[in-house]
Amino acid sequence: MAQIGSESTTTTSTTSSTTMMTGPAAPPPPPPMFVPPSGPGIKYKHAPLPPKPPVLDEEARAKLVVGGRADSGMVQVNKADPQWLSKTIEHSKQAKVRKWAAVETVASQVPRIDFADATPFALTSQFSQNRTSNATAESDVSLLEAKPVPWSTASALGLSHAGAGGVYFIQFPDKSVVVVKGSQTTPQEFLAFHLAALLGADAIRVPWMRVVDLGSNEHVAIQQAIRKYLDPVAHAGLEKSASRPFLIVMEFVPGSSVESMTAADMKRLFHGDNVRVTEVNTTAVITDAGAAPQPIDLSSGSPSGSPRSSSNNISSSNSNSNSHSSNNTSSNAALPADAEDISQVTTVSVDQPLSPRGKELLEALGRVVTFDMWINNWDRFPCVWDNEGNPNNVLVVDHSGPEADLCAIDQMVTCLDPRNFAAALDAYKTNVRNFLVELRGWRKGEVKLTDTNLGRLRSSIELCCGYSLTEDELSFVRRGILDMAETISTVSDQEIRAKVSHIKTCIAVDWENTWSIACNSINEDHLLGLRDVFAEVCS
């Protein structure tokens, strides 16, 4: 043993002398890329660590922007300051503004994606969300053969303003687009996808996805495609999500967020193209002292001297527009000579019946609400949660066409483990039960749906795009909520347990047990318990 030690010492000394004589030694070659061998039952729990970013001096750190803020860490909070909370909130707002500015800066430097011409890349031609009667240890959608993505041919990169670094849109020369997402909650999002696929495409539409782990060649190829446009140092805050050990490769859905749509767009979505909003100018005239004022509809003609506003008259040129008035006086009639003008101009929205597709879309909206209640996905519609919601997590696909559809995005399973949060889970189930019982017992004309928790959904959408769902429209949302509750109530224990088991075991390379730790928050008892609530209400 001593001899071995002395040989090692001698070798080290020789190497050191050589270094002093010939200058600094060349840097060692990079380690070979880790490629796990294939084979059943092979699991790797420790893949090579991702490369660390270079050490920067103080000046470089001051100039570096990470996620929109200086790379000096979070703001230091002095809770002794009575205004610490308001200062923290203001700092958060400013950080978000800087983050969006960073996205815009980078987006202006890389080839932009023309989303108007973008098409979804076909990740698999076999995918269909058709529920099967037999549950297996693996999800049905996981058995589908994924089509290879030509990452090396990426021609443009898009960044999400919402996530500001977590979501990447990668386009290829044929204009097709793939979405890549790096998230800390990948297992929970992947389980939400599989549960939606279990219910079927007729119940809820979600983007198809798969997970790429650190040990695969594809993980390296995705990073190279993103780093073609984002520098790991200059754009560290926007690029860092691509370095996560697990990446979601997701179907691109060419749709519009609710926030990007106008109230007129939403009305046409539910009522069809024949919807017209017509400004009706009603002039009241008195022809003699004893007569009551009689309105004259002036929506398509303007007698001399009558008040008239045309700036918002959307469809006055359409001869088929319907105007509602208390009489059938011609709109071209002139005011009598002895009439006293006491006119007022009012705007009337001409209601059209819901289109057949509009009714289906409203029911689809309701099914999304119930799915969210099942998985406790609180970041969409605040029916049973105390927040403002985020309706932008529903995309409207082809909103101006006859095949309009809704696609739910960015959902995740948030389980309340009964072993640790029994009281919270019981309270949550009570909220869900009371909400469903209230809707199930609703009778038209007795209680307004806007006075139920559906009024919170209505307010959330109204705050987002200015459109207020009517009682008639909410009645179809209600129908979708109850239909989805009945669908989920038929899911078996075996199906739920199989999905959870698949998510926990589907990763080949679990870097530093990251996946396993994240899966600890997934509890099938939560899903089973909410399923039972649905079954109880629907029985």
TrEMBL record:
Residues covered by region (Disordered): 1-51, 286-340
Pro residues biased stretches: 25-39
Low complexity bias: start-end ranges: 8-24, 299-332
Matches recorded under Gene3D superfamilies: Phosphatidylinositol 3-/4-kinase, catalytic domain, Phosphatidylinositol 3-kinase Catalytic Subunit, Chain A, domain 4
Name of the featured protein: Actin-fragmin kinase catalytic domain-containing protein
Record-linked SUPFAM superfamilies: Protein kinase-like (PK-like)
Residue ranges of domain Actin-fragmin kinase catalytic in the record: 145-262, 356-482
Organism listed in the record: Capsaspora owczarzaki (strain ATCC 30864)
